[in-house]
Amino acid sequence: MTAYLLALTVGPVQEFISAARRTRDLWFGSYLLSEISKATAKSVRDHGGALIFPAPRNSTDLDPDSRLNVANIIVAELKESDPATVARAAKAAAQAHWRSFADRVFRNNQGVIQPEIWNDQVDDVIEFYAAWRVYSPQTYQPDRAALMRLLAARKRCRDFLPARGRPGIPKSSLDGLRESVLRPSREWPAQSIGRLRLAEGEQLDVVGVVKRVWVQEGGSAPRYPSVARVAADPWLRSVDASRMGPLLKACRNLGNEVLYEIDTSEECGSPQYAAFPFEGTAVFRSRYLEFQREAQVSPEDLKPLARSLADLTCVFGEPSPYLGVLVADGDRMGQALCALQSPDAHREFSRALADFAGEARQIVNVHSGVLVYAGGDDVLALVPMDRCIACSRSLRDRFSESLAIWSAKTRTNLTLSVGLAIAHFMEPLEDLLQYGRAAEKHAKGPRLDDSEQKQRDGFAVHVLKRGGGPVAVRANWSTQLDRRLQDLAKWVASCAIPGGVAYELRKIADLYQSWPLDTVKEAIQTDTLSVMKGKQPRGASRMDHIETLIRERVTGADSLRGLANELLVARQLATALSTQLGESL
Predict the structure, then answer these.
(1) How far is C-alpha 185 from the chain's CA centre?
(2) 275 FRET partner, CA 20 to 30 A, in 55, 185, 301, 542?
(3) Is residue 584 over pLDDT 50?
(4) pLDDT higher than 90, residue 406
(5) How many angstroms separate the CA atoms of 181 and 275, rounded?
(6) Which residues in the chain are classed under CATH 3.30.70.270?
(7) CB pairs under 8 A, 24+ apart, for 311-315?
(8) Are 554 and 563 in contact (CB under 8 A)?
């Protein structure tokens, strides 16, 4: 009997994950794609395929709602099954599982949906591609590589169904690909307004509606932590628990349909937010006006909440509106896969990646963040600003430990590059994701001004403030950039270093830019130390540490500019730390 290797991909990734305005869209889109991929993999297994990626450890790993997160690429070996038959069945399983989500949403929300437009779109969502080739266990390595080239070629020959656009119907606000399936808002049942939480003028297509309002049969809608809740976490942890009572009471009195209560269960929720299990909107007064419009409440309804918040901010200050968007990706994974000599080795490698993905959620939770997605070597998470650096380091170290044996077996240095974007929670969610991906790309490869840095195994932090230009720092993990940023942030937060000194260091760097290399080091260090010593700290002096840092790091204009950028990043991180220290920057 001829043996085959089969590879499948399921999508669309863009619509399920990237197109998002609310965190509900983002998290549920990731969950939805994983569940559809899981159903596809289960169909392959049930039709005689021996799964290679993913490689479930037991028969229940591919059940709906299992803890296994399945990526949208599936690889299997077929020893007795016809690949075309298996691929057709897998495609049908993917389509059926998508329809199980969509049909439930349609049944529960017919009052807001235009059925004729919904029916035009619902069967044209799933993207499915398959490729297979004959292989021998003795030539698994080149056969798998050829299979993946074949699959890539198949994806380029995409099938496009005829467009069925409707004139005069607005497009989806999330990605603009399809028309909105929503009826005019004046026709909606009253309970649907709070459930959809649409911004003014927002429209949703079939995928957008499913992501926004799907609920389990007989259950309530899952409650996901918002970006505002993640940003507010350092401030909420700084507030004395004994003084939180009035704020918690005001939140509960508004009701779950007005102010969502987050799922804090250990199994699938966010237990790290149990002390304040509500949307972060509640602690940002600047959001109250939009909150009133979306939740359909009056200013009078929010008065108890506003009073309790005002009492706390008088003592603990205002929460910072910034958070960290963490995007991580494994290095040299393709090289390691090419070195695997057998399906069994590939399965064990897949399981090692799955184990890391399972641990990633716990690592992010420990650092008070929320995991959006962890599929093998890919991680996307939202993390509070005061813990995002430590979370990045923990993920990187755990990845290296989990894959150490495979680094040795494949003679490949398997590492994790982590990009961290620090941005305002009011930025559009798609922009926050783009910022995180840009930081991850920078972590993978140094830029022209990142002198003497190596490719991969990198850590990059980008700060994108609403006022002022972006600041970026990047280094390989071996240089301890993360530890240095944490130390600098603590010194700035405790007023041992003035926050604004970085701008003066930039000016010194500009002055020395054209100096010859053989004379610049001593002069630039002398001037830098003079500026630092001239700044009288309000807190305990750290001048001995600062002087050591300057003599180790500053050798010319570029290195001084790099130190200045690190201080600017540290200054932003310090805004979260200073809240807990009771200081103000």
Answers:
(1) 32
(2) 301
(3) no
(4) yes
(5) 38
(6) 321-479
(7) 311/243, 311/246, 312/239, 312/243, 312/244, 312/247, 315/243
(8) yes
Instruction: Give, as one character, the DSSP assignment of residue 17.
Output: I
**Cα separation of 528 and 508, whole Å?**
7
Instruction: Please give the helix or strand (H or E) that residue 393 lies within, else none.
Output: helix 388-402
| Tokens of residue 162, six digits | 């005829």
Would you call 369 helix, strand, or coil by DSSP?
Answer: coil
**92-103 burial: b if 16+ Cβ within 10 Å, else e:** ebbbebbeebbe
556 or 164: which carries more pLDDT confidence?
556
Q: Using one digit for the tens of pLDDT, what is the confidence trace for 17-27?
A: 777 778 888 88
CA 533 to chain centroid: 41
Parallel, antiparallel or unpaired: strands 370-375 and 127-134: unpaired
Name the residue type at position 462.
Answer: H
Please state the length of the chain: 585
3-class state of residue 416 by DSSP: strand
DSSP line for 431-468: HHHHHHHHHHHHHHS--TTSTT--SSSEEEEEEE-SSS
Does an H or E element contain 574, and which?
helix 557-581
When pLDDT is cut at 50, 70 and 90, the band that residue 529 belongs to is confident
Does the pLDDT value for residue 227 go beyond 60? yes
pLDDT at 585: 46
Domain 4-210, CATH homologous superfamily name and number:
CRISPR-Cas system, Cmr2 subunit, D1 domain, cysteine cluster (3.30.70.2220)
Q: What pTM does this model have? A: 0.91
DSSP 24-89: HHHHHHHHHHHHHHHHHHHHHHHTTEEEEES--SSTTTTSTT-S----SEEEEEESSS-HHHHHHH
Distance CA 480, CA 311 (A): 41
CA nearest 52: which of 283, 367, 376, 313?
A: 376
Average pLDDT value for residue range 313-329: 94
Q: Which helix (H) or strand (E) holds 109?
A: none
Q: What tokens does 18 get?
A: 């990237």
Helix or strand or coil: residue 541? coil
Among 567, 519, 574, 117, residue whose Cα is nearest residue 386 = 574
Name, in order, each residue with C-beta under 8 angstroms of 507's C-beta and a sequence gap of 6 or more: none
pLDDT of residue 167: 82
Q: Indicate the CATH number of 321-479 among 3.30.70.270, 3.30.2010.10, 3.40.50.970, 2.60.200.40.
A: 3.30.70.270
Question: CB of 215 within 8 A of CB of 108?
Answer: yes
The string of pLDDT tens digits covering residues 133-166 is: 999 988 999 999 999 999 999 998 877 666 677 8
Q: What is the pLDDT of residue 237?
A: 94
CA dist 461 and 568 (Å) reads: 11
